[in-house]
Amino acid sequence: MPRAAAPTLVSSSPSPSPSPSSRSSSSRASSPLTSSSRTSPSRVPRAADSDRRRTSASVVLRSVLEHGPVARSTIARLTGLSPASVTDYCARFTELGLISEELVPRRSNGVGRPHVPVDVDSSGFVVAGVHVAVSYTTVALLDLRGRVVARRELEHERTDPGWVLARAAEGLRALLDGVPGRRALGVGVAVGGWVDRESGTVVEHPMLGWRDVAVRDVLRVRTGLPVHVDGHARALVNAERLFGPARGSGSVLHLFVGNVVDAAFATNDEVHHGPRSQAGAIAHLPVPGGTEACDCGRTGCLQAELSERTLCRRAREAGVVDTTDSLRVVAAAAGGDQAAVGLLVRRASAVGRATRLLLDVLNPETVVVTEVGIIHREDCLAALREGVGAERAASVVPTSFPDSVLAVAGGSVALDVLYRDPLAASPQAI
Asked: How much is the pTM?
């Protein structure tokens, strides 16, 4: 899709154990994308050295992301790496175009030798993001700080995967044509339902009618770029730990409540995926007193009770607004419709009770919730925290990306790959 040579996101991680479905890391490399392991003692020097280089490179680039503009000496102090190692990594990142030096040297507190701070270079590269929702697809371009450069929403006239993915590729091409001088490192795709990141496959998404859809392979052919695919809750927990206030937390839980309801959990900078990436499947947790019939044949499943489809149906039944768009319910509440307010607050309270259950099971330091009422209304946020309980309420926060959450979700899949193994962003012709 882009017309110039650029680094692309590939992975040098070792292959995982065979599974019923496994994923290769990109269109340019056959080794699968796995999370960079933390440095640990090893009697195999070559393997240990490889892991150490990958991990150290990630630590340096993440330090620049978090603290930039920042002096190399400060990075060395923060990371515990030697100044020579930091200088070498920064030189490589500069060569790749991932960071740049400030033009004017600085002195710390006006004294000492001047230093030249480095910062993430947000001017040259972007990652492309795709988020597939039930009724529309969001395509976007994000810079290396996770900020949205451009985006579009593509309504679903139909939901067969070939048509949806072809339109997504066309939408990305149009966005890239609109930002001359920017080059794409890769494509990140976030989807609800059961997504196997190792194979880049949507294993099952009942609301879309998708089953065993090879999303990575289809978009790789259509875009000519490396493509990485993950579930949207895991994508958003990655976005929070990279770009949000939760990046300092030792453990983060993300709860996504849209038409699909699911969760993701990260500890020590690692997102838990589980076998075939099934971790976080909470749609069928039972809700005490629930009355909504679920497609699984039971009554009172979490997704059936809390989904936006249920919210909008209840809004229609209450005469609030005839819509399938939850934002119109929020707009009605903002306009003073008390029935709409009640629907949103009750839903937020139920989300709070579900969050409390997950807190009891997983005990994360921080919980991030993406839900339309909680994003836009203080009374819904208060109801959420009341449902959680006063002792843990302060640890529960709304998404850091209230105006761009779906655009950020897709792009963060690719940005997570970059920040885990930045030296794998090697120059290749596309």
From this structure: 0.85
- For residues 69 and 104, what is the distance between their CA atoms, to the nearest angstrom? 12
| Interstrand relation of 251-257 and 366-371 (parallel, antiparallel or unpaired) | parallel
Cα angle 219, 1, 413 (rounded to 5 degrees) comes to: 50
- Report in angstroms the alpha-carbon separations of 418 from 136, 158, 186, 247, 386: 27, 33, 9, 16, 38
Token pair listed for 282: 């909470």
- Any idea which of 8-22, 53-67, 230-244, 332-346 has the lowest mean pLDDT? 8-22
As a whole number of Å, the end-to-end CA separation of the chain is 8
CA dist list (Å): 224 to 36, 49, 98, 132, 191: 25, 32, 21, 20, 20
Residue 208's CB is within 10 A of a number of other CB atoms, namely 23
Alpha-carbon distances, residue 346 vs 278, 282, 314, 374, 395 (angstroms): 29, 20, 12, 11, 21
Q: Provide DSSP, 292-360.
A: -B-TTS-B-BHHHHHSHHHHHHHHHHTTS---S-HHHHHHHHHTT-HHHHHHHHHHHHHHHHHHHHHHH
The residue-averaged pLDDT of 227-252 equals 93
Beta strand 125-132 with 183-191: parallel, antiparallel or unpaired? Answer: parallel
381: exposed, middle or buried (Cβ count in 10 Å: 0-12, 13-18, 19+): buried
